[in-house]
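Researcher: Let's do a round of design. I'm pasting the structure tokens now; please hold your answer until I've finished.
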């Protein structure tokens, strides 16, 4: 019986490896799987037949190998299911429907969710509306069965209870249980995770971090600053799900007997809102824009000043705006350097609202790269802007949802199961697995 049991376990591992290989690498054929995953052709065939029988893979058409041979083309079945991915609350929420291959079926931008209303009820109604719209978007292709909803939220999540915690910028979110409420309404699994951690996950799988196992994603937006950390290909959550809350970082000289709330010290000095606030303070103190055509006849009382206007003025040469932005950048350089020293990433990816500011590369990215290269005692990591932009969280939620659904059945990837793992260890992982992605 032991031999049969071990054979069954080994086949489960092979199925897992092959399915995740196909999801991450796209169309391929059996011999290439055997070569790249390191399994024998008979083992590959057994696993693939199992996946084909369950409908997770499709075998259609042909590919031509480097030797000119025609072989059957294998792909993940896009019609097996889809997930609803939501980037919730930071400004207007974003909704996307993705199939199991990661292709976007439909997306929309939702409403602002007010703290004065019933947030859960409003979200339920919006999801119902979104599903209805997604179902009608392509009449030639029925919407695949919705297998899960994944929600990215601007706060920490208690993985045991499913409640939101640590929502200092959004107090009305604390102790809400989106998971329980949405599962009771839609009767499908619901997964919830911090929005910046999901953005980091997406950058690791789809963005500039694709070739790296260790990365830091820093999100600089209107109100907040946070980071998502990926180490060895996995999201770092920490004891309370609060790993990466760099917005609350402080520097020497700052009073440590003061509690910065709801914005952390770094956020109070370097978020886009704080940059605008500091410019307004300077204007009220008598400083003026050095450029002709500055906002308003009386800049000290102008309430329409935005981060975009401040950055554009800095690009055009305004000394006040440049000085305020430079001060924020210097502080961000210090905090980012400390984070790099702590986790030693291969790449740092910058995203959030900063990405869309005029001159962001010149004013922010270039000095960050230059100074980090001088400060660090070792080779500085790559520093790049996100290529996923405002879609990062939503994309991460779609990946997170699919992996959370499937990791129970198919928990292993090529990276997570090394050749040194024994069959007994693999069997233990299957029997006692903990879904490292599910909330």
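Researcher: That's everything. Go ahead.
Model: Designed sequence:
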């Amino acid at each position: 019986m032991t031999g049969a049991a071990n054979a069954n376990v080994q086949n489960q591992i092979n199925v897992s490896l092959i399915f995740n290989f196909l999801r991450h690498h796209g169309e391929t054929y059996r011999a290439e799987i055997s070569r790249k995953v390191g399994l024998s052709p008979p083992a590959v065939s057994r696993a693939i037949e199992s996946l084909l029988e369950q409908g997770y893979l499709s075998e259609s058409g042909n590919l031509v190998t480097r030797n000119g041979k025609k072989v059957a083309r294998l792909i993940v079945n896009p019609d097996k299911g889809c997930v609803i991915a939501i980037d919730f609350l930071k400004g207007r929420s974003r909704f996307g429907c993705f199939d199991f291959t990661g292709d976007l079926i439909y997306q929309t931008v939702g409403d602002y969710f007010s703290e004065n209303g019933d947030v859960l009820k409003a979200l339920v109604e919006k999801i119902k509306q979104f599903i209805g719209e997604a179902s009608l978007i392509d009449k030639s292709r029925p919407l695949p069965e919705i297998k899960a909803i994944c929600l990215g939220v601007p706060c920490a999540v208690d993985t045991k209870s499913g409640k939101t915690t640590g929502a200092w910028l959004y107090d009305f979110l604390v102790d809400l249980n989106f998971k329980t409420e949405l599962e009771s309404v839609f009767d499908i699994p619901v997964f919830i995770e911090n929005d910046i951690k999901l953005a980091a996950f997406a950058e690791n799988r789809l963005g500039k971090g694709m070739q790296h196992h260790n990365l830091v994603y820093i999100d600089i937006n209107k109100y907040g600053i946070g980071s998502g950390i990926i180490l060895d290909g996995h999201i770092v959550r920490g004891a309370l799900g609060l790993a990466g809350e760099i917005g609350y970082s402080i520097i020497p000289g700052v009073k440590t007997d003061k509690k910065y709330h709801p914005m952390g010290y770094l956020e109070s000095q370097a978020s886009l809102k704080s940059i605008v606030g500091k410019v307004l303070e300077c204007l009220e103190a008598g400083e003026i824009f050095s450029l002709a055509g500055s906002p308003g006849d009386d800049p000290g009382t102008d309430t329409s000043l935005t981060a975009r206007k401040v950055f554009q003025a800095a690009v055009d040469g305004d000394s006040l705006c440049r000085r305020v932005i430079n001060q924020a950048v210097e502080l961000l350089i210090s905090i980012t350097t400390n984070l790099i020293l702590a986790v030693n990433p291969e790449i740092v990816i910058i995203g959030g609202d900063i990405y869309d500011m005029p001159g962001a590369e010149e004013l922010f990215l270039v000095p960050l790269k230059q100074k980090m290269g001088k400060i660090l005692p070792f080779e500085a990591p790559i520093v790049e802007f996100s290529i996923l932009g405002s879609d990062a969280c939503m994309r991460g939620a779609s990946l997170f949802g699919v992996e959370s659904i499937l990791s129970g059945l198919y928990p292993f990837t090529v990276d997570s199961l090394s050749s040194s793992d024994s069959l007994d260890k693999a069997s233990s992982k299957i029997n006692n697995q903990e879904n490292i992605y599910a909330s």
